[in-house]
Design a protein that fits this description.
The chain has 11 helices and 14 strands. With about 375 residues, it is an alpha+beta fold. The chain has 2 domains: about 5-170 and about 365-370, 3-Layer(aba) Sandwich (Aminopeptidase), CATH 3.40.630.30; about 175-335, Aminopeptidase (3-Layer(aba) Sandwich), CATH 3.40.630.30. Strands 1, 2, 3, 4, 5, 6, 7, 8, 9, 10, 11, 12, 13 and 14 form a 14-stranded mixed beta sheet that branches.
Length: about 375
């Protein structure tokens, strides 16, 4: 065993970090190369706000012939509140060699332990959970935009090292047809009689209004997730502005009760159906190609980003009302036919139940793993919601 870890510290290292997957996935027709800019943004303190309350390092693994055979990043996010101080590892790529993988993971463990951490989760993101989170363990088909994809043997590399599943991430999919269980129509009809309720699609010209409404719904419905984190209105407005060029107004919906936002259903076209033609680049030519594909290309895939109902309306049929109101447009007035939801944690049975009630099926499964540095400490899975 003759391995060497080199910290990514210059442009050449960054290029090698981005291009190692070309070797790993050269025979995998389902892999879609992520945009280089999306990966690099994670490690840019000017672009990633998580550097304000955390730190990050990344390394390349070289063999005895000085060939790059692996890569990994380790990071600390002080706002990542867990049972014990917990760091993260991510952006893991490696040849099928347990010794090579363990060499990198040992180094990350030691670095995190020196920073006061007592555990590491992985593979996760130095950022929000909707990107680059979890190890793919089932459903090795084309990944969604900014979703982790990996060879099947990574599961063995992580588990043999000693990682245990902290929670599973279920992705559900279905065809966009106007066929639901009878109870959905019944509940929809009941709420339809309430004249104080109405549903409407997002309008780009009033984007800041919808960003504020999204913040309201999210903070009421989802603040208990992810360690009680709430969203700042300015942060959401910036996020919506970023999404604006790729939004389809017919795909995202809000419900209002007397003009107060009470539910939202945020969906986007699957951008990987465009970006798979870019080979990781997004310069001027690729942007022009993207605009052409967006207007004239065929994209029947869209994905669910978030579905939320404020507590006062949960359990009252609001999910059925929102889904049926939106589906009247999505199913009959758009080209989108294949729907896949962003992952739902197996600790969230309510949302999983909604997916099952819709008639959706599991399309892929990812796992968030945890490794406790104290190997005698009792391992606990993510608490149920």
């Amino acid at each position: 065993m003759n391995f060497q870890l080199t910290e990514v510290s210059n442009a050449q290292h960054s290029k090698q970090f981005l291009e190692l997957p070309l070797k790993i996935y050269k025979d995998d027709a389902n892999w879609i190369r992520p945009l280089d800019k999306d990966i690099e943004a994670v490690f840019d303190p000017e672009k990633n706000k998580f550097f304000k309350h955390g730190s990050c390092k990344r390394w390349l693994l070289l063999n005895g012939q000085q060939e790059v055979i692996g890569r990994i990043a380790a990071f600390i996010n002080k706002k990542y509140k867990q049972e014990q101080p917990t760091g993260g590892v991510g952006f893991f790529e490696c040849i099928n060699d347990q010794a090579a993988a363990s060499f990198m993971l040992d180094h990350c463990r030691d670095w995190l332990q020196a920073q006061g951490m007592e555990a590491m989760d992985g593979p996760i993101n130095f950022g929000e959970r909707e990107r680059w989170w979890g190890l793919l363990v089932e459903g090795f088909h084309e990944p969604l935009y900014c979703m982790n994809y990996n060879p099947p043997y990574y599961k063995e590399l992580f588990e043999h090292y000693g990682f245990q599943v902290y929670f599973n991430q279920e992705c559900f999919g279905m065809e966009a047809i106007y066929e639901f269980q009878d109870k959905f129509y019944t509940r929809h009809e009941e709420l339809l009689r309430n004249k104080d309720l109405h549903a409407e699609p997002i309008r780009k010209k009033h984007l800041e209004k919808y960003a504020r409404d999204f913040t309201t719904v999210y903070n009421k419905a989802w603040a208990s997730h992810g360690g009680g984190k709430t969203l700042d209105e300015r942060q959401v407005i910036a996020m919506f502005r970023t999404m604006k060029p790729v939004m389809d107004e017919r795909l995202s919906w809000f419900v209002y009760h007397k003009e107060e936002p009470v539910a939202c259903w945020l969906n986007l076209p699957d951008l990987n159906q465009y970006f798979k033609h870019m080979n990781g680049k997004f310069g001027l030519l690729q942007k022009l190609k993207f605009l052409w594909l967006q207007r004239f290309g065929k994209n029947e895939h869209f994905l669910g980003i978030l579905f939320g109902v404020v507590p006062g309306w949960q359990g009252r049929g609001m999910d059925a009302y929102l889904i049926l109101e939106g589906s009247k447009v999505i199913c009959f007035k758009t080209p989108f036919r294949h729907y896949e939801m962003q992952w739902i944690g197996d600790f969230n049975p309510k949302m999983i139940n909604i997916a099952h009630n819709l008639g959706a099926h599991i399309t892929r499964r990812l796992s968030t793993y945890r490794y406790l540095f104290d190997r005698q400490k009792e391992f606990r899975r993510h608490p149920m919601l």
